[in-house]
Amino acid sequence: MSTQPSKDLETFVNPEPGRDYTIRIDIPEFTCLCPKTGQPDFATIRLEYVPAAACVELKALKLYIWSFRDQGAFHEAVTNQILNDIVAAIRPNFLRVRAEFNVRGGIYTTVVAEHRNPDWQAPQPVHLS
């Protein structure tokens, strides 16, 4: 079992591929470095996805997120990189990455990036009264 940062995203077979369901993951301890100053940036990363054939394994996701700790990246770039890497690993029907960065210089930044499988039809929402 690895305890070192890694860009490898392990997956496992979706146990219910015939059903649309949502997986929500909150990662409150994300860190990377400001590419201008080298100072640390802190964020909560929120993932929401509707899996297709595969799901992301959580230990591998933790090590993947950890791999950004010493990487300089703009908020917009790192959010989109996380989206692209997870899409490449699991090919979900839908994935939203929401990166909520802590205050820096009096400014909070939130970046939201999404992927939708063009062949997937989202189910109609159910509204209960």
UniProtKB/TrEMBL annotation:
Subcellular location: Cytoplasm
GO biological process: tRNA queuosine(34) biosynthetic process
Active site residues according to the UniProt entry: C34, D41
GO MF annotation: an example: preQ1 synthase activity
Cellular component terms per the entry's GO annotation: cytoplasm
Residue sites binding substrate per the record: V56, E57, L58, H75, E76
Domain of life from the UniProt record: Bacteria
Pfam families (alphabetical): QueF (PF14489)
Function: Catalyzes the NADPH-dependent reduction of 7-cyano-7-deazaguanine (preQ0) to 7-aminomethyl-7-deazaguanine (preQ1).
Family in the record: Belongs to the GTP cyclohydrolase I family. QueF type 1 subfamily.
Protein's UniProt name: NADPH-dependent 7-cyano-7-deazaguanine reductase
Organism, as annotated: Methylomicrobium album BG8
Gene encoding the protein: queF
